[in-house]
Amino acid sequence: MLDTIKKYLPIINMVCILAILGASVVGVLNLINSNNNTLTALNGDTVWSISFSSGILGNMEYPKVTDKPTGPIGYPVPMLLALQVIKALPESVFSISFEIVYLILPILCLCLLQRLAGMKKNPYRWIVAFFAFFVAWDYIQFDIRALNLNIILLFLVLLSLDLLRRDKEILAGVVLGISVVVKLYSLFLIPLWLYRKRYKAAITAAVVLVATFILLPGVVLGFSEAFYLTLDWLAAIKTTSTAQASQLMVCYLVSFNRAITALFGANQAGGIGSLPQETWDALNTGLMLFKVLWVGIVLAAVYGVQKIQQNGTHLRQVAILLIAPIPISPLLQPHHMVLILPSAFILCRVVVMPKVAAIIRVLAALTPAVIFVFSQIVQIPEPVRGLLFASLTFLLICSLVFLPLNSPDILHNDEELV
Questions:
Q1: pLDDT tens for residues 171-220?
Q2: CA 310 to chain centre
Q3: Cα–Cα distance, 82 to 87 (Å, whole number)
Q4: Are 77 and 226 in contact (CB under 8 A)?
Q5: Residue 57: exposed, middle, or buried by beta-carbon count in 10 A (0-12, 13-18, 19+)?
Q6: Which pLDDT tens digit goes with each residue over 301-343?
Q7: Could you say which DSSP state residue 381 is in?
Q8: Which of these, 378, 301, 388, lies nearest to 343 by C-alpha position?
Q9: Which of 36, 179, 399, 401 is most exposed by smallest CB count within 10 Å?
Q10: What is the pTM of this model?
Q11: Are 46 and 69 in contact (CB under 8 A)?
């Protein structure tokens, strides 16, 4: 079958590239149609709208930290500072820039994955990219429509890995540190790099975090103001982690928290009062135990990959850590599932690998196929969706750990991330 495909590879590859670009264009056009101006949409979001009372931004009006902002501080302080800079841009400049970023980042992420997986010169690389992209495409579209940052986070993480692959550890650490400012999910890569003895990159990333989370906010806002805003942000994280919070949030949640509380009879209409306090206490205890168990499973998976597999363990460990927060994130929404793209790429790669048993090909293709089918089914009850997201994450991790997904035959002398 592969020999038959090989005859038409130039045409197939071009079709795959055009399909990916076309889908990206559709996503951006949907964004433009749903929001005539992206900056206007951001200005209407209380989480993105924040200003300050001291430091360099002291001329901006902001209620003192004793008077809470209009909404919870859903982002760390350095991200709020970045958003202030973004919102100061002319509306047309920002809108066009935002749309261009969303247009090009998916294809750039796929190019980086090809390099990281040792497929830069592989003739089947765009077929693999095509299938992996469309496994995650619904979630990428959701990310664009929600004006969220998961595809930006993924690009920064993959770029940092590519820099690390080329032994540019300082630059890799800087880029990884910036990615943590965008979303905290990539924070777990720093201890992974320490474990893999990439000390220079890990220490650089830690220095960037100190600079962006402590020094920069202190200089810009004043250390006292920055400190209390950070406490507000940490308090928001703690509050939203409870079982009760999953029934108070009005956004489209598909978290494990929401699924479990709904199965026990909680509902948004009744809020906290829909269950007795004793039940809430039991649910919070149970969810905490689940989180501890899940962290243990993830650590075992990260360690197990390196012991069980021969090649490409670093990329698989990163893929595991990117999706690891999905079952335990209390505010999980569909656009967070953009981070399955590396896992989908690794598994789809097996389909075109030579000298692989048919059963391995089928098993490797099964998980991405199930995720794609699941993403196309709209009428799934909300509690079931949350349980399915958690179950599919577990299935992805098991596939990455146990399936022999690498073969020297497919590398064609490309250097793989090891």
A1: 999 999 999 998 889 999 999 999 999 999 999 999 999 999 999 988 88
A2: 26
A3: 9
A4: yes
A5: middle
A6: 998 887 776 666 888 999 999 999 999 888 888 889 999 999 9
A7: -
A8: 301
A9: 36
A10: 0.86
A11: yes
